Amino acid sequence: MLAPQRKDLSLGITLMASFILILASLFMPIFKGVTPMNFMDRLYNSISKGSVYYIDQLQSETVNYRGKSFDFSWQAETPARADRMAAMFKNAGANVTVSQMLVTVNGDLGLILDRILADSDFMFNNQGETVRDRYQLDEKTVLYEWWTALKGVNKQLNRQKRFQEAKFVNAVLTKAVECSYNYYGIGARNIMEQATLVVLSLVFYVIYTVWLGYAILFLLKGFGLKLEQH
What we know:
This protein is mainly alpha-helical. The protein has 2 domains: 7-49 and 197-218, no CATH class; 55-183, no CATH class. Helix content is 64%, strand content 8%. The chain contains 9 helices and 3 strands; from the N terminus they run αααβαββααααα. The protein has helices at residues 6-25, 36-49, 55-61, 79-91, 109-124, 128-135, 139-159, 163-183, 195-222; strands spanning 69-75, 95-99, 102-108. Strands 1-3-2 form a 3-stranded antiparallel sheet. Strand 2 (95-99) and strand 3 (102-108) form a beta hairpin. It is elongated.
């Protein structure tokens, strides 16, 4: 342990205080009621959305599954949810029966996946009112129910050793339904259109991280502490 260094301590306190002030400002609504953290979060979400669109590719592949029937059974927790799931599958052209909250579905796998992908596409493009009007349900609820259904379909297809169909159902689940649900309400942007802002934010992040490191370093030196390797 060394003797306290007043100059280093003053510098360390100044760096740490300014670091905390900047950190606090990042959580204040200074951009038209939006915090800098929320602003940057939305920016990076919009940039990432522009690179995760696979729905058109999946739609072109559903032709391979048209005419292939599938059976799916799902036990609902409430009568209302059973009726909701049944109505959605009927709307997609499937044959559905409900008995004691057990929903049993039989239909054309390709045609039903077409409908699910169409709903996902509307949601991805922030046109949720089309989905809402089609089912008379909240649009995010519709996607959540499709997500639940596809999880069950995937499991049952795997049990039947229909692995190719199960793999495609899982792709629709993750690349279309999940993606559209998570990015709903966010506008897509090309990273090149926001290149200056992205570069500045990354430079700020590096400098801000180093800033904290030096603040801690000078505080330790100011208090007379020294890290040694034994």
